[in-house]
Amino acid sequence: MPNEGSYEAALRRSDEIQADISAGRTGKYTMLTGDRPTGRLHLGHYFGTLVERVRLQELGVKTNVIIADYQVITDRDTTEHIQDNVYNMVMDYLACGLDPSKTMIFTHSAVPAANQLMLPFLSLVSEAELQRNPTVKAEMEASGHSLTGLLLTYPVHQACDILFCKGNVVPVGRDQLPHIEVTSKIARRFNSRFGKVFPEVSGLLTSTPLIPGLDGRKMSKSYGNAISISMTAEETAKLIKKSQTDSERFITYDPDTRPGVSALLTTAGICTGRDPREIAEEIGNGGAGTLKKYVTEAVNDYFEPIRERRHAYENDLDYVRDVLHEGNRRANEIANQTLDEVREAMGMVY
Ligand code: TRP
Question: Which of 78, 162, 211, 330 is the most buried (most CB within 10 A)?
């Protein structure tokens, strides 16, 4: 872990960039972020990152979103359903407002030149640096698999994702700021050994609140506590109905002692733009039934237009494929150009 000082500096840097972007000084910023196509995106993704991506897109930041298909096999041994997951991810993106005329949407596996950056980049990190990465360890433990070479080196692969398109801002959660350090380190080391090709990379903190799963734990498909963007209104109602609350009838907001009730209130609060405490007061003696009805309506009202758009894309798979093909085509153009610069810097021109 980097020391407090560098963490503070990263926070300050993020604030400066946010101020620049909000003031419309977006020209010098290229964002890259992405998702692993292991299932449908849910409300945690939506409020945690998709809203921010769309905001940056609309403010004129160059926005790039990678569907990280090679990352699927960092800790599992199957690519089952990958095509379906990738197409559905594109549908989720489009429905939520990512605009393919502004945002480049593409997959790892379609961009060989970006993956080739892995070779020089691997020479810039030591085994010890890879071994002490806290996320890699946590992910290995969570997966129950042994540490694969790909999982060990995936932070380097993420550096390829970010740097092939000269990304210089990466949206992250507060606790993840240190992870961007791997990419900046690689960029700095490459530049100083071989000549300047890559930009300075900064983490961009998002101000969006963390939305818990329906049981108060982190929202995750594997916990069964996640409302997917693609669910129908009925499926949403059913999931909320069977969520665990507690035996106390009077509704209050207290995430520590009442995780279930409070998660429902937070969800309703985010979807309606209201303070969860105020919603709790209003419901009061109405109990969990009234609360669940309120949350269901809040979620379904908010996501109705998004889900309607999603249905249109579900019925137009040709368009969805076109979006991805065009994104992949552009990504290849950019990656080939960057790889040429890398060969040039390294003197590998024959
Ligand atoms: N690791 C991210 C996830 O698990 C996806 C991802 C791949 C990514 N490459 C990236 C995020 C580069 C930020 C930057 O969802």
Answer: 162
State the Cα–Cα distance between residues 347 and 350, nearest whole angstrom: 9
**What distance in angstroms lies between residue 283's CA and the mean position of ligand 1's atoms?**
40
Q: How many angstroms separate the alpha carbon of residue 165 from the centre of ligand 1?
A: 14
Contact indicator for 12, 174 with CB cutoff of 8 Å: no
Ligand 1 pocket: which of 161, 180, 218 to mutate (most atoms within 8 A of CB): 161
Residues 288-324 have pLDDT tens digits of: 999 999 999 999 999 999 999 999 999 999 999 999 9
Task: Name 248's Cβ contacts closer than 8 Å, sequence gap at least 6.
Answer: 258, 261
Question: CATH code for 221-314?
Answer: 1.10.240.10
Closest ligand 1 atom number to CA of residue 32? 14
pTM for this model (two decimals): 0.95
Q: Which DSSP letter does residue 187 get? A: H
Q: Which CATH number fits domain 4-208+317-345: 3.40.50.10490, 3.30.70.890, 3.30.70.100, 3.40.50.620?
A: 3.40.50.620
Domain ranges of the chain: 4-208+317-345, 221-314
pLDDT at 11: 87
Ligand 1 atom index nearest CA of 167: 14
Pocket of ligand 1 from Cβ distances under 6 Å: 32-36, 66, 68, 71, 158, 161-162, 170
